[in-house]
Amino acid sequence: QVRLMESGGGLVQAGGSLRLSCAAVGGRVSVPTMGWYRQAPGKQRDLVASITRDSSTNYMESVKGRFTISRDNAENTVYLQMNSLKPEDTAVYYCNYRFGQYNFWGQGTQVTVSS
User: Fold this and answer.
1) If you write DSSP's letter for every residue of 86-113 in order, what string do you get?
2) 76 Cβ contact partners less than 8 Å away, ≥ 6 residues apart
3) CB 77 within 8 A of CB 87
């Protein structure tokens, strides 16, 4: 069992920045594909960004150039740096660990961007 602990969410004005952190317990973040997803009220959960074992990254089109996913293997933590935030980025953000048959989720952290 892998536990994922997210932090760093909060309330920020449009144009501001936040950095989300996802610390893993019971698994190494260097091994699986790690991802950040988000879910706004009444909407589906969408992939925002992911990073694979060989450090290939993938981003949702609407966040390209504004968000950056990174991984610190020594800290066993994955980050999502979010810049130039927009009100439409408001959602609960979830960390995801995916490796073979294993698929774990964090509890989510709320990001609210005011206009």
Assistant:
1) -GGG-EEEEEEEEETTEEEE---EEEEE
2) 23, 24, 28, 29, 30
3) no
Residues in the chain: 115
Distance of CA 91 to the CA centre of its chain: 11
**Are 95 and 105 in contact, with CB atoms under 8 Å apart?**
yes
As a whole number, the mean pLDDT across the chain is: 95
Which residues lie below 8 Å from residue 43, measured CB to CB, with a gap of 6+?
Answer: 91
DSSP 85: -
Q: Are strands 57-59 and 18-25 parallel, antiparallel or unpaired?
A: unpaired
Q: What is the pLDDT of residues 33-55, one digit of tens each?
A: 999 999 999 999 999 999 999 99
